[in-house]
Amino acid sequence: MSEPQSEIQHFTKHWQQQLAEAFNNIDDLCRYLDLSPDDLPVSTAAVEDFPLRVPLSFAACIEKGNPHDPLLRQVLPIKDELFAYPGFSNDPVGDLAAATRTSVLHKYHGRVLFINTGSCAINCRYCFRRNFPYADLQLGKQKETTAIQAIRDDASISEVILSGGDPLLLSDARLARLMQQLNGIKHLKRIRIHSRLPIVLPARITDELIDTIRQSPQQIVMVVHCNHANEISARVIAACNALKNSGITLFNQSVLLKGVNDNAEILCELSERLFGNGVIPYYLHLLDKASGTGHFEVSETEALALIKQVQAALPGYLVPKLVKEQAGAASKQPVF
Ligand SMILES: *Cc1c(COP(=O)(O)O)cnc(C)c1O
Predict the structure, then answer these.
(1) Which is the closest atom of ligand 1 to the Cα of 253?
(2) In terms of CB atoms within 10 Å, which end of the chain has fewer, N or C?
(3) Which atom of ligand 1 has the smallest separation from the CA of 105?
(4) Residue 14: phi, psi to the nearest 5?
């Protein structure tokens, strides 16, 4: 399938410009996808709760005219989001209160989550931080200095995980400054970056970014977030190759989502396509129960049955670990 000229031109632009041109309303997205909003269960109230945001590089992977497309389901605001499912709350993981006080979340031994920004390039409707006041997470210089000092002062920390939001939304200059400070901390063995940008805005993976990251004496691990093989376009593949060729180890985490990837064949195809492009399947998360996301839930029983089917079909290293987040636990909890 050949791309229209306007899209080819869009993809030549700087990533920040591509981001600025992301879809931000239902009508524009539907028009682009040859869908009529009148035929879909869309909800403007859901948009008010949590805005629509979809970069063209992701929208271009959605099948035109298909209201049930698994990628569309991840980003389209629908009426189901307004329904209060029992057991779903605004802070399912119990992290958010802590995250406003400090940008360093130290829950597991040896590694900390360093929240650098609350923003993302895409608003996934199943996001566990969707109900959170994002502005409070913005990392000012003072908070950053305090956070770095806390990491420097605790020699038990061997790995810093840059997280968010999406840490790759920071400018190269901000990232460079951050990396420089982390690079000076002797007890750090690894820096890990948790980002969905290589998948949803592959233009972010520039040579300059890679140079910035690579200056680190520590090992660099990147955990991307991809839920369906259709998200892995030629541009995503190029971005993953560039990262991998520069010596960065790539893993993927997915969320098990009803109507998106709750099918063994789809999960197998995802693992195969990831690994075929240098990305190792890491985690398959059960949904965190954030308000507005109940319609995505796959039960633990179903999840177990699915992962057993995947295990029966693939080599062990292509089977992601099925896990769930449990407040107060010492690690992600294995379900299988
Ligand atoms: C998920 C998570 C991590 C990373 O866990 P790994 O099992 O090492 O991938 C670290 N800190 C926090 C607070 C987390 O939620």
Answers:
(1) 9
(2) N
(3) 13
(4) -60, 150
